Amino acid sequence: MQPFVTHTGLVAPLDRANVDTDQIIPKQFLKRIERTGFGQFLFFDWRFLDDGSSNPDFELNRPEYAGASILLARRNFGCGSSREHAPWALADYGFRVVIAPTFADIFFSNCFQNGMLPIRLAEEDVDELFRRVATASEAGCEPYKLHVDLIACTVVDEAGFMRTFSIDPFRRTCLLEGLDNIALTLQHMDHIIAWEAAHADVV
Amino acid sequence: MPATPRTLLEKIWDSHLVCAPTGEQPILYIDRHLVHEVTSAQAFEGLRVAGRRVRQPAATFATPDHNVPTTDRRLPIADPISKQQIDTLRNNCREFGVRLFDLDNADQGIVHVIGPELGITQPGMTIVCGDSHTATHGAMGALAFGIGTSEVEHVLATQTLRQSKPHSLEVRVDGELFPGVTAKDMVLFMIGRLSTEGGTGYVIEYTGSCVRSLSMEERMTVCNMSIEAGARAGMIAPDSVTYDYLRGRDFSPRDFDRAVAQWEKLPGDPGCTFDRVEVYRGADVVPQVTWGTNPAQVVGIDAEVPAPENFGDSSDRDSGLRALEYMGLKSGTKIVDIPIDRVFIGSCTNGRIEDLRAAASVVQGYRVAARVHAMVVPGSGRVKRQAEQEGLDRVFTAAGFEWREAGCSMCLGMNPDTLAPGERCASTSNRNFEGRQGKGGRTHLVSPAMAAAAAVTGHFVDIRGWRYC
Ligand code: SF4
After folding, report:
1. Chain A to chain B Cβ contacts (< 8 Å)
2. Which of A15, A127, B139, B279 has a Cα-to-Cα distance from A47 of 20 to 30 A?
3. Closest A-chain CA to B126
4. Which residues from chain B sit within 8 angstroms of residue A24, using beta carbons?
5. What is the ipTM of this complex?
6. B113 in contact with ligand 1, CB cutoff 6 A
7. B414-445 burial, b for 16+ CB within 10 Å, e for fewer?
8. What residues are paired with B425 via a beta bridge?
9. Across the beta sheet with B202-207, what order do the strands follow?
10. pLDDT tens, chain A, 203 aa long
11. 3-class DSSP state for residue A33?
12. Whose CA is nearest to atom 6 of ligand 1?
């Protein structure tokens, strides 16, 4: 897995709550048997009009958010289906960080399996970030950027915004070092064998 | 000194904890791993690349369900990409020695229907599947939850999962449900109050006299939708209803009485406590209909489409307004005045035999309204055969319903069963997300009886006043 230590990138806002994984990657694209190539289908029904052209009203299609790698979202991001195709699509599109007040559980853990960092910030901090993105976009100035540091656990911009975030220490280590979870668990094989032996009559 | 009283969740957790290495997430043993075609191909591929095998093939069970045609099974699968996905599952099961209930197997069906039906899922077990509705199996008194594909690979390779201990939420429903009010209404009502993220981080245990009085299949309907409130798992302590259901099933323990003696130790000890408790009254539940694009956007059949501009919370307001626009609804419209075009009866929420019986008894003696296209998709091959033995298929087809082969079908519309843009559907499934049943399709979640009545009248009706023939 690709390690995650620090990341600086453009921020794209997605100002709606309860974005479910059916929206992130609609079902018609779940038939593929690879892990790659899902970025082209990200938010498909929102991104594209019926004739296949790009939907100018959808946030991510605005020119100032081209090349964004940090997604700013609202509450309960990634709810619904467990499909890991959702983080695959986000990562393949170019996102490495998603910031939201809350995430759905399964989506949250799926991100970590793919070198992507979901960050929970307080609702008012997320509001503030939405304001800063909007201000930058309206003023036509430099696109809004954030710097994320997983060693210090901070989110920082160039204009004085600085917040720390909390993260499970084990998940943090796995991301920092890009560890293979399975290899890590296999190191505890003696415990697994012992558990199975102790429960042999029940299993 | 007496031991600290423990909940059902704590007992299962403790007994499955393999180890909790310092600085790492605990490792939990997994008793049953259910596998389907959509979330497993990349996991098997990962094993292959790393030269790993499936650690416990005998604890792993697979079936194709999401992406299968529900029309004539003797015909080849028309969509080449769907066919490739199902063939991949076949090849993987063969290569890794996993038992597969294939399309030509009489026991094929939706993974969450066949698990309990075959006795594969049992009380006290840890059960996972690359599917968020795995919570269904919690109805047996198991800890069952959905996982992503990387975790599927982890379970295949190690038979364990890295998992932090979840918080516990008791949802107690006291009293009784009125006639015509079902388990589906109970769980929709609960989601409406908890919100779509109220259960995030929790495992729900459903308790109370109202829950105890439910049949095994009704309990599955309730646990199934736990994820729609954000809870990864929902569970109900096993009792005689559970044991009666499991006795004599194909994969049930051979020494059944000994197993029951073990299972009887599972329910929470007197005095055990939960991190959080919510209490509802069965008598407050009326038949529910969703009006929006998430399952918490729900009201009673006797209500009107709400006015989101009056919602206190700004993001509820925004998503409510978006939902009304997507759904093509106006606030103030009576729910019973909403006309429908399609009816879907099926899914892992309501595709079991009791659901089909309930729907058939409503339809009996009536015809589907001229404007409506209605279909019934049994949850499994067994459910289908049982229904046919009882003559339910004839009740449905005589009324003008289509009678299909088992699968997920229009619950998610991965196969050809989809809504056209703008079509409005009364559906017994579990998600009314935008485009879930087809791009631009408008889904209203209801119970099987409510869906059946809507098929007959062409709009929603209060099933409590239905005239059964
Ligand atoms: S019936 Fe629907 S919710 Fe259930 S497993 Fe199939 S697609 Fe998922």
Report:
1. 170
2. A127
3. A203
4. none
5. 0.95
6. no
7. bbebbbeeebbbbbbbbbbbbbbbbbbbbbbb
8. B342, B443
9. B233-235, B202-207, B167-174, B276-281
10. 889 999 999 999 999 999 999 999 999 999 988 999 999 999 999 999 999 999 999 999 999 999 999 999 999 999 999 999 999 999 999 999 999 999 999 999 999 999 999 999 999 999 999 999 999 988 877 899 999 999 999 999 999 999 999 999 999 999 999 998 999 999 999 999 999 999 987 54
11. coil
12. B408
**CB pair distance less than 8 Å for A182 and B52:** yes
> Which one of B34, B65, B129, B132 would you pick to mutate in the ligand 1 pocket, going by the greatest count of ligand atoms within 8 A of its CB?
B65
* CB contact (8 A) between residue B148 and residue A184: no
What residue type is B13 in one-letter code?
W
Name residues whose C-beta falls within 8 Å of residue A105's C-beta, 6 or more positions apart in sequence. B200, B201, B230, B232
Ramachandran region, residue B90 (left: φ > 0; alpha: ψ -120 to 50; beta: rest): alpha
In chain A, the residue whose alpha carbon lies closest to the alpha carbon of B230 is A104
Could you tell me the two tokens for B462? 């209060």
Contact B132 A34 (CB under 8 A): no
- Centre of ligand 1 to C-alpha B348, Å, is 6
Angle ∠(A124,A125,A127) on CA atoms, nearest 5: 60
Query: How many whole angstroms from its chain centre is CA B104?
Result: 24
Closest chain A residue to B89, measured at CA = A33
Contact between A106 and B147 using a beta-carbon 8 Å cutoff:
yes
- On whether the CB atoms of residues A104 and B195 are closer than 8 A, the answer is no
DSSP designation for B195 = -
